[in-house]
Structures are given as C-alpha cells and as structure tokens.
Amino acid sequence: MFLHLKRLIITSVIGFLILAVSACTSTQFANVFAGYAQQMQGARGALFAGDYQRAQSLVTKAEPGQNNYTLSLLEKARLSFLAQDWQQSRQDFAKVIEALDAEAAKAKVQLSRGLANAGALVSNDNAIAYEVPAYEQSMVHSYQALNYVYLGQLDSALVEIRRANLVQEQALQQNQQSLQDSEEKFNKNALNQAYPSMAAMIGQLKNGFQNAYTFYLSGVLYEAAGQANDAYIDYKRALEIYPDNRYLQQDVLRLATQLGMSDDLSQFSAKYGAWQTPDDRNFGELVILHEQGVVNAKQDLRVDLPIFSSRNQPRFFSFSLPIYQGALMKYSPTSITVAEQTYQTQAITRLQSLASKSLQDQLPALVTRQALRVVAKEQLRRKLGQEGGEIGNILAALYNVTSEQADTRSWSTLPDEVAIIRLPLSAGQHQIQLNVAGQAQTIDLNINAKRITLLQMTTIGQTRSHHIKNL
Asked: Which of 8, 32, 132, 328 has the least CB density, counted as fewest CB within 10 Å?
C-alpha cells in the first residue's frame, strides 16, 4: 500500500514537472530552475576583463524555438560588435530581427503566449519566451546600423535607423494603454510598500523606451547621407530627452540656421544663443560616441504581498520579483584635447535608467502572473497533500521552493552610459589626446572637408577600444 502511494505521489510530481518544462516547448529545464543573471556571471566577468571571445563561449546557449534563443543572440551579437567583428555581429543581429519580425507577424501570438503562460503558472516566468523590450529593440537596430556603417553600407544603415525610430514611435503609442490595463489588476499600494524604489536608477526619465542616443545616431547618419531635414527632426527629438546636452543644442542651432527654420531658430537662439558659423569653410566634423560600463544584472527579490480569497480575506504569500538595486554609476567626463583646445563629453543616454524604468513599467504584469502562479501552486500542494499525505506536502513544498525564481533576464552586455562630443575641425590630419578616467591615449585621425568622421569608443573597466570611420 505504501509503495503504491509513494509511486502515485512521485508520478504526480513528475507529471507537474514535465508540464512545467514542456507546456511551452521553448523552455529549457535549466532556465526554469536557475536565474539568467546567475548563468551569465562567467560571461560578464570575461566581458569586464576584455576577453570578448571567452565571454562569447560562456553565453548560455539556446537553439531556435527555445525561450532564451533571441536573448542569447543579443549577447553574442553585442560581444562580436565589441570585438569589431562587424560581419558576425551583423549576422547575429539579423537573426534577432528575423525572430522579432516573426513574433510580430504571428496571427495567433496570443494563443501561443497563453500556452507558454501555462508552463509559467506551475514554474516561473522563465518558462515564457523572452520578450525583447522596446529600449533593447531600438539598440538592436542602432548596433545593426553601425555594423552596416563599418561595412561601408550606409543605405542599409539608414534602413536600420528608421526601424529603430519606428520601435520608439510604436512604444510611445502603446505604452499608456498597456500601463492602464496592467495597473487595474493588482494592488499597487501593497507593491509600493514591499518593493524597494528604483528611483535612484531611473532618475528623471519619463519612460523606458525613448532613447536619445538612437535619435542622435540617426541624425548623424542622416547628415552623412545628405538628408539634413531628417537629421534635424531627430536631433530635436534627442534634445527633448536631453535638453541640457550642449552638443545637441549646437546641432539643432546649426541645422535650424542651415535649413532656414526661422521660428525654431528664434526659439532655440533665445535658449542657447546664436549659432556661430566657423570662419574657415574648409571644415569637417568629428563626432565621438563613447560607451562606458555595462548595465547591471537584475537581482532576485523576495517580497510578501497579499492575495485576497473569494471571501475578500487577505493572505500573504512570498513572491520572487526581479529588481535593479543600488544607484547609478558615476562616470567622469572624458576629456578630448585637439588643436590646443580641450572639450569634455556629455551623456546622451543612460541605458541603466531605461532598463530600470522598463522593469518598473512591467511590474503590474509580473505581479499579476505571480498571483496566478501562487494560486496554481497552492492547488498543486493541496492535491498532492490529499493524495499523498505528508510526503506529498513535502514534495510539493520542495518543488515550490526550487521553482520560485524571479525572471532576471535582460540584455546584460549593453553599455550603461553613452556620451558624445561633436567638434568642427579643419580638414586634414589631426592628433587628439584622450583622458578617460585618468588614463591618457593618443589617436590619429583624418578629417575630410564638409564630411563627418565618426570615432566610436568603448570603456569597460580597464579595457578600452575605439574604431574610426569617415562617413
């Protein structure tokens, strides 16, 4: 009798484990029971050490159809970009874009997500295919645009830039309604009391998807292609997000003057002063994009929140939720000395802030799924307890503990901050002196008249790299 009962209990638990892993066919068993941030520790360590090849080998592998397939490609594409393997990076980002397009085109996408959610209800959110947030999608197209720039394909780069901007426009349209729909379904006050504020990470950011860096890069590439009107529109968009960036201010003043935007020019001149045209017309421009640091990994946070019974009686349950903890890293401006003049970079985006704001906006949906999961697991525990007694309760409790993992997935190799400098320089050879966090470096470059020279720099820990492209 005991052996028969024991067999019944074990069979039941195994059945639920199989359901948890196979309810969504794109779920890897390890991803359900081990957090993504934990899995990526080795890869991030190699990234900070500047060993991009080793970092790639340590990225958690995923095959098409698995939950982390797109995320794995994002990590590898970014690491290939850092290694300046533009072709490999382009290929991996192309696969990401193909997957995003396929997901958007699915006629039955809601049904497929519903089946994935069934797996999540008896395990955790890692049983759901990773959904790339808008700020990450805009960076996908931005990096792909840069890949095409470095491969000498400016027209293809402009296609990607348009797609990056479209992502932000669509997110702006969809954001408010989705927030309203989610917030109607959970106890916001209880969450605010139990969940630590991420305000220090978010700062003054209004939303988690409008990225001034993408708009600025768009403006630079449009100018390089001779499309000044399009460039002006995107510089203004970037300036709305970062109004204190003086390089953006000068770009808007310069193009408003050039394009004869008299009303805009009057307004911007009153704020920022008149545009000073360089005396020597034999000038080109140096644009520096400086990426610094790496976004933080999400952490697993346990919070106690109430779930109300059918009799409207609260009962507190423990939830696992992702969180970004701490405050924003402070970076010293990079100093650039050229032609006996010294300039400093100014930030144009904090991807850590975008990531934190995006997570904050996702919390209502996360908590709603957690509440449903708690109910499902409680029903599982009761069923096993009824059929298997104490042994069933113990097995169910062990499963509940081991499967309760916050979804700590995010594109974890993105930079933290991007800063810019834009300088008019006389045509010809120049030697610039860089000072990055006290470390000096000299770079030689060539400026072409009436053209843009792009210098992209990356600083991660003690590792620095750069790439120059005449546009």
From this structure: 8
Question: Cβ of 325: how many Cβ atoms within 10 Å?
Answer: 13
pTM of the model as a whole: 0.85
Q: In what order do the strands lie in the sheet with 335-338?
A: 341-344, 335-338, 428-436, 439-447
CB atoms inside a 10 Å sphere around CB 168: 21
Instruction: Name the DSSP class of 151.
Output: T
Q: Could you read off the pLDDT of 31-71 as tens digits, one per residue? A: 555 678 889 999 999 999 999 999 999 998 888 888 899 99
Pairing of β 463-470 and β 452-460: antiparallel
pLDDT tier at 172, thresholds 50, 70, 90 = confident
The model's confidence at residue 397, banded by pLDDT at 50, 70 and 90, is low
Q: How many residues does the chain have?
A: 471
Calpha distance 200→119 (Å, rounded): 34
Coil vs helix vs strand at 443:
strand
At residue 237, the pLDDT reads 94
Q: Rounded distance, CA 412 to CA 295, Å? A: 6
Alpha helix locations (H) across 203-350? 212-224, 228-241, 246-259, 262-272
Coil, strand or helix: which one is 422? strand
Question: What's the total number of domains in the chain?
Answer: 1
Helix (H) or strand (E) holding 460: strand 452-460
CA atoms within 13 A on the CB side of 86: 14
For residues 160 and 144, the answer to whether their CB atoms sit within 8 Å is: yes
Indicate the pLDDT class of residue 174, thresholds 50, 70 and 90: confident
CATH number at residue 192: 1.25.40.10
Buried b (16+ CB within 10 A) or exposed e, 326-341: eebeebebbbbebeee
Is the pLDDT confidence value at 133 over 80?
yes
Rounded to whole angstroms, how far apart are CA atoms 330 and 7?
A: 58
